Amino acid sequence: MSLLHLRRARTSLVLDARGPGLPRVVHWGGDVGDLDDDGLGQLAAATVPPVVPSSFDAPTVLSLLPEASAGWSGRPALAGHRDRADWSTAFRLDGLDVDDPSDDTSPVRVGVRASDPGAGLSLTVELTLDPTGLLMLRHRLRNDGDTPYELRELTPVLPVPAVATELLDLTGRWCRERSPQRHPWRMGTWVREGRHGRTGHDATLLLVAGTAGFGFGHGEVWAVHTAWSGDHVTFAERRPTGQATLGGGELLAPGEVVLGPGASYASPLLYAAWSDAGLDGLSDVLHTHLRARPRHPRSPRPVTLNVWEAVYFDHDLDRLRALADQAAEVGVERFVLDDGWFRGRRADTAGLGDWYVDEDVWPDGLHPLVTHVTKLGLEFGLWVEPEMVNPDSDLFRAHPDWVLAAPGRMPPPWRNQQVLDLAHPEAYAYLLDRLDALLTEHPGIGYLKWDHNRDLTEAGHRGRPGVHAQTEAVYRLLDELRRRHPAVEIESCASGGARVDLEILARTDRVWASDCNDALERLAIQRWTGLLLPPELVGSHIGPERSHTTHRVHDLGFRATTALFGHYGIEWDISSISPAQRAELAAWVAAHKRLRPLLHGGRVVRVDHPDPAVWAHGVVAHDGSRAVYAVSRLATSVAEVPGAVRLPGLDPARRYAVRPAEGVPAPATVQRVEPGWLASGATLTGAALARVGLQVPALHPEQALLLEVTALD
Ligand code: DGJ
Q1: Which of 200, 230, 281, 365 is most exposed by smallest CB count within 10 Å?
Q2: Which residues lie closer than 8 Å to 623 by C-beta, 6 or more apart?
Q3: How far is the CA of 17 from the centre of ligand 1 (A)?
Q4: Protein residue with least CA distance to atom 1, ligand 1
Q5: Looking at the DSSP assignment, which residues form a beta bridge with residue 171?
Q6: What gap in Å lies between CA 442 and CA 304, rounded to an integer?
Q7: Which of 454, 492, 493, 541 for a ligand 1 pocket mutation test, highest count of atoms within 8 Å of Cβ?
C-alpha cells in the first residue's frame, strides 16, 4: 500500500493508497512534477483540510468511492441494500495492482481491490491514465453474500479544486442537439439525468468545470463524460465543506440490478480530462485518445450521398440509379439507401421489424441498385433500425410479446413504433440472423446507418425494468455483427444525434450529429459535438438550398463550408439542380478531398471572438505545416467591422501564407473595398496570426469564408 502518482502527458493523478480504507484522491489535474515518496507524502499532508466546528472530529477526505462511514454526506457513490441491510459500507483496501510502464506512450493502469466483509461486498476500482492524459474510471461491485443485493447506484466521482467556479454542459432536442448551457458553480448538485433508454438528444456529452471565464483557448478545465447509451446521470456537486466533485454513472430503475450471490455489476466508464488550455485543450486530449484506438477509422472518410432528403420513402430503382450516376459525377464515394427499402415500408407507419427487401418495390431485390452503385466505384450503404418494430408489421403480428413494455399495456407509441426486447433470446436471435443474412447476401454493403427513432418508455423485460439489459444486448449485437462482418462500417444515428457517447462509438464508426442539415444550426451542433469527437467521426451533409427542418435558405457555399469540417456528405436531390450548381458542388467535394487528410487528422481549434455573430474554427496540422479555417458570419452585428479574427494553433515562430481556399467560390460580402491582403494573400507569423489576427471581408449574414494557411519555412 502506498502513495501513487500516475502521470501521463501533462496530467497527474495522485492517490493516497496507504489504507486502511479506500484510496484518497489527493490530486487530479495538472502535472505536479517528479515527486518521490516524501514529496508525495508532503502533498498528501498539505491537502488535508482543517477540522471546523460542528463537524466530524477528524478531517474528511475524498476517496475513490466516498462513503458515509468515512464522513461523506454528499451524493452517495454507492447505494444499495440486501433486504434493507448492508445499506452502508466501510470498504477496506485489500490490494493494488499497478502497471506503470516507464514508457510514456503506454497507459498506466491501477486496480484497487477492496472489500467490506460485514456487508458481503467487494469492490474493484479500475483506473487507466492514457498516454494522452485521459483518465478512465470504472467501479466493479461483487456480491459476496449468500442473499441477493439490490444495487441502486454505483457512480465514480472525481474531486475538482476550488478554483473551478463555472460549469458548462450541453443539452438539446431533436434538430438542436448539443446546445451549451453555462453558469456559476454554486453550492448544491447540478444533476443531468437522461431517462430515454438511449443517450438522448439532450445528453450532457461533456460536463466541464473551469476557472472563471474559461474559453476555447484559455482557462483551466476539468471534464467528465459518462459512456453509456441507456439511462445515465452526470453531475457536479459543490458542498459547504469545500469539496467539489464531478461524477457520472448509470441510472437504474427500482429492482433493475439485483446481484445474486457471486454476481457483479460494472459501472459505465467515466472518462475524465483535464487541460490548462481551455476547451480546445480538452478536445485535444479526447480526440488524440479516440484517434489512437485500434478500430478508429483510418481510411479516407468516403464522401457520402444519403438519399433520405432526396427521395424519402419514394423508392424507385431508375430514379435511384440516376441519383447514383449524378453522385458519382460530383465525386461521391459512398451511396446510402435510407429508410423505405424493406417490406411494407411505404411510410413511417409500417414495416419496422420486417427486415426483408420489399418485393413490390424491389422485384429483383436490392441487387440491381447495389451492382449499379458498386460498378460506378461507390460503396453501398443501407439504413436499418434494428431495435424497432411497427405494430403494423408481420414481426409484431407474430410476436407481440417481443416488445419492451410494462405488464398489460403498450408504451405510448412514438413515430408509430415500439421497441423490441433484445434481452429476449429469440428476438435477439431473429435480429442477428436478419442483419447477418442481409450483409451476407449483399457483400456490396460496406456501411450500415443504424437508426433508433424513439425513446424507451416503460421499457419492461418480463415485467421488470429492461433498459440496462437492452443496452447491454445492443452492444452484444453490434459486437457480434462486427465480428462476422469486420469490413462493414456502422453509423450511430438516433433521430439524428440522440445516441452519441463513447460506448456506442466503441462499436460504430461515425455518428449522425443531427437531422438538421441547416448550416446555421449545424455550425453550433458541430462545434459542440466536436468538443468530444474529432471531425472524422461526425457525419455532416450538404442539405438542400431550403432546409427541410427549418425552412431557412442558404447558399451552397455556406452549406458546403459548414459541412466540410466533418465526415462530408450530401443529402439533397441533386437530380433537380442546375449544371452550374452541380459543377460548384463538385468543386466543394474536390476541396474537401484535398483538405481531408488535414481535416481528419489535425488539431481542432475554435476561436473566442468577442462578437457573438462571428465564429471561426479550424484544423491545424500537428507539425504546424498547414491549417484550414472557416470564418462564419451568423448574423449582422452592430459594429460595422467586428474586429480582427485571430487564427490560433499555429507555430508562433513560423511564417505562413494565408489565402482564401482555392477552387471554390468566394462568399457574399457587403463591403465596398475588400481587405487589401485578400487579393494576394497575407504572410504573417503564427504568433501574429494568433495574437493580432486578420481583418476578414465584411460577410453577409449566413456566409462563410474558407481560409487555407501554409507554412513558408
Ligand atoms: C431519422 C434519421 O436521423 C434520418 O436521417 C432518417 O434516416 C430517418 N430517421 C429515416 O426514417
Answers
A1: 365
A2: none
A3: 50
A4: 495
A5: 179
A6: 19
A7: 493
* Start-end of H helices in 494-555: 519-529
Cα–Cα nearest to 660, from 628, 692, 616: 628
CA–centroid distance, residue 172 to ligand 1 (Å): 18
Would the CB of 342 count as within 6 Å of ligand 1? Answer: no
308 CA to centre of ligand 1 in angstroms: 7
Q: What is the dihedral of CA 369, 375, 377, 378, to 10 degrees?
A: 10
C-alpha cell at 587: 468543386
Q: What is the DSSP letter of 341?
A: -
Give the atom of ligand 1 at the shortest distance from the alpha carbon of 338.
Answer: 7
Q: Whose CA is nearest to atom 9 of ligand 1?
A: 495
Are the beta carbons of 635 and 626 closer than 8 angstroms? Answer: no
Across the chain, which has 713 residues, the per-10-residue mean pLDDT values are 93 97 98 97 97 95 96 96 98 97 94 98 98 98 98 97 98 98 98 98 98 98 98 98 97 98 98 98 98 97 98 98 98 98 98 98 97 98 98 98 97 98 98 98 97 98 97 98 98 98 98 98 98 98 98 98 98 96 98 98 96 97 98 96 96 98 97 95 98 97 98 95
Q: For the whole prediction, is pTM greater than 0.90?
A: yes
How far is it, in rounded angstroms, from Cα 114 to Cα 440?
Answer: 47
Atom of ligand 1 minimally distant from the CA of 493: 3
Phi and psi at residue 257, in whole multiples of 5°?
-120, 110
